Amino acid sequence: MSTQSHKLEALIRGLRPCKVAVIGDVMLDHYCKGNADRLSPEAPIQVLDVTDEFRMPGGAANVAMKVVGLESKVRMVGLVGDDATAGELQELLAADAAVTDSLVRDPARSTTMKTRFIAHNQQLLRVDREHRAAPSGWVREKLVREAFTAASEADAVILEDYGKGVLSPEVIAAAIRGARKNGAPVVVDPTGRNYSRYAGSTVLTPNLKEASVAAERPITDAESLEAVAHTLVEQTGSALAITREAEGISLFRRDVPRGPITHTHVPTMPVAVFDVTGAGDAVAASLAIALASGIEMADACALANLAGRAVVRQFGVGTISPGHLLAEANREQADWMVKTANVAAARQRSREIQQAGGKVVFTNGCFDILHYGHAHLLQFARSQGDFLILGLNTDASVRRFKGPTRPYVSEDQRAYMLSLYPFVDLIVLFDDDTPMNLIEAIRPDVLVKGGDYTPDTVVGRDVVESRGGKVVICPRLEGLSTTDLVRKIQDRIPA
Description:
By secondary structure, the chain is α/β, with parallel strands linked by helices. The chain contains 18 helices and 20 strands. The chain has helices spanning 3-13, 60-69, 84-94, 137-152, 169-181, 208-215, 222-236, 279-292, 297-312, 322-329, 331-339, 343-355, 372-382, 395-402, 411-419, 436-442, 461-466, 482-491; strands at 19-24, 26-39, 46-59, 73-77, 79-81, 99-101, 104-106, 113-119, 122-129, 156-160, 186-189, 203-204, 239-243, 249-254, 261-266, 360-365, 387-393, 426-430, 446-449, 470-473. The strands form 4 sheets. Strands 6-4-1-10-11-12-13-14-15 form a 9-stranded mixed β-sheet, with helices on both faces. A hairpin with a 6-residue loop joins strand 14 (249-254) and strand 15 (261-266). Helix 6 crosses helix 7 (222-236) and helix 10 runs antiparallel to helix 11. The longest helix has 16 residues, at 137-152. The model has no long low-confidence stretch (mean pLDDT 88).
């Protein structure tokens, strides 16, 4: 492990569980997936036959879930309507004991909901239901009080601004005033042109485009980047951590009041990018927790780089945890640590892949003593979609149907070896006699089995096909099985 990896790992292990106030524009993300194989007789439009429908916390609420993933507690402050959508969002948040709901209900507005209609892994249409005006009267006053209270009791504050009206100057000022009571850092994911309203915060995290819009100047080179950053630091008095995707983070700040503005470039390691959705949320969450843990800002940005990097390598909004950060810090362990998941995490990843328009493939087996036949099956399975989830039998389940001498290789070693295959995206150990419960939880789009099966004998076929999915049989390679391999070895051992 390199010196830098050692340093990053030490920083990650130095993160402490925090109380984080996330204040901003919450929304409910609603997904309708199905098949669109015919035109409507009423108009020249496609008809979507819905096979799956699900909802997830969105906007600032997704940032809250990123904080929870990093083993910290959240107090969620935002604005919702007095409607069924608000109830659904609050129910999703309440499912995690680490989240405290401080959402304000406004009967005069609707809860923001974005509905995406997806067919054949492509988004057909997005419908937004939202109210963008800033609240007034008693609603604004209550929101101000909730923001102040949450911030004054937090170890860190995140202001997540999507321009929906929640983060009015009064609410921002209340949150910053509350944070000052106990010295909590304030991380802002900004929007719009006027950054002066965030004055007094600790650090702003715009991307290149957002920073360019705010400064009203295009960023085309190092010189224009410096000019834009200096304008925004002067305007806010805050540090500026401009996220630059594969280039990492450019940190601009004054080390002492009225001192010169310094520039620290925090590089990141280039990785294969599957989806940038949710990367900014992961950056804000990890940066806030790192600063609350007493980590110096440049080092905190280095951890934020790891968080963003882990998320862009996933489909959809992605998940983040200390394990993901450690995996990114030590790339030798990355596949093993990131690719193993429990059923709940696998269910969430499957939904995120599907919401992003990806196709989830599932297969399962013992994979005891890996050989070419296994690699052939897994590579074939991955070719059937965008994300392969592998159900791996535990040692106990292998013994139940293969006998007391099996498996030859333990479950942790089998999982590690399988994680090294680039075409395996996620591994879930299961202890049941069949993968039915796992299939019902994951709801894959494609179910793949080896050539010794026929479609009507595949467990979970009805579950997958009822949702518009399909079962695919991988062509069998004769003479390639663990049993055949062990027999050949035994035959060659002298009597």
